[in-house]
């Protein structure tokens, strides 16, 4: 599953876009210096997310929307088309993204 696919699944499971979850995380005081465990626990308790989906959000909350270029253009199920993640809703992803 690509990184973007994880975020799309997070939206399906929670009903919130990654950007909306990011805003909620920031309101709780989570940010670049936050360890993964409290974020994962919050996402599990409040939204029922499993570890893999929560860790995708941990990346967005602590590192932003840019991912490593090692998966860009690669083959296989973990390939992403861009080194940027779309946070504004799976149904709104531009076709040229």
Number of helices: 4
> How is the biggest beta sheet arranged?
none
Helix coverage percent of residues?
Answer: 40-55%
Mean pLDDT: 92
Order of helices and strands: HHHH
How many strands in all?
0
**General form:** globular
Strand content: under 5%
User: What is the rounded Rg?
Assistant: 13 Å
Q: Low-confidence segments, ≥5 residues, pLDDT <50?
A: none
Span between termini? 17 Å
Helix/strand structural class: mainly alpha
Secondary-structure blueprint:
Layout (H helix, E strand, L loop, with lengths): L2 H12 L3 H10 L8 H12 L3 H13 L34
Task: Give a written overview of the molecule.
The chain is globular and about 35 Å long. The protein has a domain at 1-64. Helices cover 48% and strands 0% of the residues. It has helices at 3-14, 18-27, 36-47, 51-63. It has 97 residues and is mainly alpha-helical. 24% of the residues are buried. The chain is built from 4 helices and no strands.
Short description:
The protein is 48% helix and 0% strand.
Summary keywords:
4 helices, mainly alpha, globular
């Amino acid at each position: 599953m690509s990184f973007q696919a994880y975020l799309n699944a997070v939206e399906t499971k929670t009903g919130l876009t990654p950007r909306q979850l990011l805003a909620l995380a920031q309101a709780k005081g989570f940010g670049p210096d936050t360890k993964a465990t409290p974020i994962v626990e919050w996402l599990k308790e409040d939204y029922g997310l499993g570890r893999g989906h929560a860790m995708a959000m941990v990346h967005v909350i602590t590192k932003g929307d840019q991912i490593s270029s090692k998966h860009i253009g690669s083959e296989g199920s973990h390939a992403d088309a861009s080194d940027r993640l779309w946070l504004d809703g799976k149904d709104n992803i531009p076709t040229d993204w």
